[in-house]
Structure formats: structure tokens, C-alpha cells
Amino acid sequence: MPRHYVMCPPRYFSVDYAINPWMDPDVPVDPERALRQWTELRDTYRRLGHLVDEVEPQPGLPDMVFAANSGTVVDGRVLGAKFATRQRAAEAEHFRRWFVENGFREVTMPQETNEAEGDFTWTGHLLLAGTGFRTDPKAHAEAQEVLGVPVVSLRLVDPRYYHLDTALFVLSEAGDDRPAHIAYYPGAFSPGSRKALSRLFPDAVVADADDAACFGLNAISDGRNVVLPVEATALAEKVAAHGYEPVFVDVSELRKAGGGPKCCTMEIRK
């Protein structure tokens, strides 16, 4: 099925501060290369038959390229973001305006801190919700009330994997006659969360530390094609063995800010 994505060009991309372990303002960043990598990611989605809308970037908001953190959309209902860090706080209003201007009528801005699809992952039947570094656990209950879907809380324990989408992604969503299929890195999760994931998804693709370290779990799947970083060769072999088609992209410049394909991509589910 064609997917509908929202992205934001990295016109003002830079690493001027450090709000996650991947960011180092002393390491040079090439904004032109970042824009080329982002453009190739966007064009890859379009070649695969998906719709991509773009949000206008704003000066002074270098992380706005990571559109996944600014909204969660399920059945046309939108839960906006409330960022944990002051550096990104202003992004939420720009995305809220985009939703309103593009015809979304059920847009709720949260009371509790949540970084949207960074920590909220829709499986088709339930919402996996991460906490531990950015999203407040109280936001999980708020998401259930606003979106009207069941929520399963998962605790992240490794600061390198500060968002759920750096450690887990959905390969194929659940349907009436099939369960969801996911891939995840167990080392990013608390013992209880690992047990919950193994019970919920016994046939999951289990990634290793190398898969995670190159942001291989920050991937996008349309149920057939899996878009993931070029370095994630071992993970690509694993998902291919399950019948998926790996599609490689270079996100090395964007990774300097702690982002990969999924971070750059918000999905609209109507």
C-alpha cells in the first residue's frame, strides 16, 4: 500500500549544541551533503510509490529536519509534540500549523512531554510507547486518550538510543488476519520491556549492537521495502531472509545530529 510521509528539508541543518550522545558541535558538518542525503531519501520514497509532503524549514531550528518528532497521526487524529529540550520546543507550533493548514481537524497539542514518533510506534493494532530519556511516561496515557488506541509502555535504558525509533521499527503492520512484525535491539530496553516485546512479538527480527550503532533500527518499512542506512548490512540480510527488500540510503551527515531515515520521516495514517 502506498504510504503518506511528511518531511522537512535540512536547509538550516547544523550541530550547534548537544542534546544526545551523537551530537558534537566540534565535529564539522556539511549542510550541502546533508541536503543531498535528505533529497535522496525523499526521492527514494517517491520511487517506491509513496506520497511525500514537505514542511517549510525555519531558521534557528536546525533539528526541524527530524520531522518524526513533531506529530503522531493515527486514523486521521493528530497528537502533536511537546519537546523535552528547549532547543527544539518551537518546532511543535510550526508542525501544528502545517496540520491545520492541510485540513486536519482533530489536532491535539499535548499537556505532557512527548516527542511523537520518536517514541510512539504504531503497529496496526497498538501503539508502542517509549520512555526513559525524552517522553514522559504520563504522555503514554495521554496518547491513548487522544488517539483512542491501546498503548504498551517500553523503557529505554541506553542513552545512545534515547528514542524508541532508534531501537525498534515495524516491518509490517498488523491486519485482521496477521500480527505485526517488528525488528528491535534488545540492549536498548529494560529487562521487563525485553520480556514484553518477546511475548508480544515472538517472531521479531532481533538486531545486534552493530545493527543499532549505525542507526539500522531507525528504518522505514512499507511492508515490503525496508529503507535503512547503507552500513546496516547485517540487519539487511536478516530482514531479507524474512522476505523484505532492503533499500539502502546514506544518512551519515544527518547521523551526526542523532538521526536516520525514520527520524526524517513522519507518517500520516488516515
Automatic annotation (TrEMBL):
<protein>
    <submittedName>
        <fullName>N-dimethylarginine dimethylaminohydrolase</fullName>
    </submittedName>
</protein>
<keyword id="KW-0378">Hydrolase</keyword>
<dbReference type="InterPro" id="IPR033199">
    <property type="entry name" value="DDAH-like"/>
</dbReference>
<feature type="active site" description="Proton donor">
    <location>
        <position position="163"/>
    </location>
</feature>
<comment type="similarity">
    <text>Belongs to the DDAH family.</text>
</comment>
<feature type="active site" description="Nucleophile">
    <location>
        <position position="263"/>
    </location>
</feature>
<dbReference type="GO" id="GO:0016597">
    <property type="term" value="F:amino acid binding"/>
</dbReference>
<dbReference type="GO" id="GO:0016403">
    <property type="term" value="F:dimethylargininase activity"/>
</dbReference>
<dbReference type="GO" id="GO:0000052">
    <property type="term" value="P:citrulline metabolic process"/>
</dbReference>
<dbReference type="GO" id="GO:0045429">
    <property type="term" value="P:positive regulation of nitric oxide biosynthetic process"/>
</dbReference>
<dbReference type="GO" id="GO:0006525">
    <property type="term" value="P:arginine metabolic process"/>
</dbReference>
